[in-house]
Amino acid sequence: MTAPIAHEANCDGLVGPTHSYAGLSPGNIASERNRGEASSPRAAVLQGLAKMKRLADLGVPQFVLPPQERPDIPFLRQLGFAGSDGEVLAAAWAQQPAIAAAACSASAMWAANAATVTPSADSADGRVHLSAANLVTNLHRSLEGEQSARMLRVLFPDREKFAVHDPLPRVEHFGDEGAANHVRLCAEHGAPGVNLMVYGREAWEGWWEGEDARYPARQTLQASEAIVRRHGAARPVFARQARSAIMEGVFHNDVVCVGTRTALLFHERSFEDRAGTLQAIEAAAAGLFRPEFVEIAEADLPLADAVKSYLFNSQLLVLPGEDRLVLLAPTETEENPRAHAAAQALVTSNGPIGRVEYVDVRQSMRNGGGPACLRLRVVLNEDELAAANPFQRMNDAVYDLLVDWAGRHYRESLSPADLADPGLIEETRAALDDLTSLLRLGSDFYPFQRD
Ligand code: SUG
User: Active-site residue among 7, 252, 267, 340?
Assistant: First the structure.
């Protein structure tokens, strides 16, 4: 039986107007290193848009995901800050700057963390299942889940084809970071797949236990199991991330691993039990396809260079007219001699990857977000693709509209102190209001539109 035609659509988070470097993510080395630097929201959003346009030009279905409303005034009100919206923000900055910084973060741009997706070819009821992630490990990211679910329901409104689940219970036992810890392998996108679910710790195990403990393990096994259960996801393989890698800055599996179709590209130090993980993938794939493991050894690319260069945080693309896969890597990979050599070797080795292309997402990279972090992959058959909100689909016209929109609304530069400017509230709301009409998100999409 041949599989139905399906595409791996990419849904990218549009960078929000408050994009900044607040150093909010312990264990994310770039975020820690660039804390306090001035950012350029306009350059950031344009870089993201250029990447989306490139994907659309290459023939990949590409969708735009709207940013969230920040500063998050309702969150600050929940904590007792009162008065006008401007007063709420000012009081939070004066009294609790760490909380205020969290309320201003544009971190929803990293759509790989928005949800975990099970395509209809793998789900028990034949629908596409999406679970918004609770992101409870970091305060600023824990504010995203509810709006992410709303956003996915707008993009995929048809309940007969799509099931969008609310985030898992918001406690650290079920810490869930979405698709950044999920890799799906298959013969073809529309065929049954193997779902590799990578976790960093167990629910009742504190990440801080042990002499090497420095950084949190964000995803729990129990969260991954719950997602598989509620989606009815077939052929799961649960694999533990190497603890030593987490302690060296691998805060998500997608910092050291990416896969598509039959190919899994990963760093030697990705998994706690490397051999057991590969065997389990092979066993789950038996009778369906033969996995192609492309491993990069520590000797060829030390983990520290993998983290710095983000070679593995690339998009691995199946493109029309190309018989081998294309790796869309960040420019930082090209600039790191070892990572660049490793990328070149992938191409010359005659393996599944035929070509590497580089993309500039430097503004996002400085917060530890590479090309793969910015996108959520959703495998869709033709009917499902046709059921997605067409106004969010990237094409030349939408690109031009959004570039113009960004030019009108985004600041060229933003220092951390600027985040306390009450003018930013109205400025970002005006931008988001405009965007709501451009992408046809409905009249009550943002909290400020519901008040
Ligand atoms: O969760 N950075 C994000 C980067 C997410 C990358 N996503 C994937 N690997 N899929 C994070 O650590 C930094 C924000 C700041 O420090 O201002 C931040 O949230």
Answer: 252
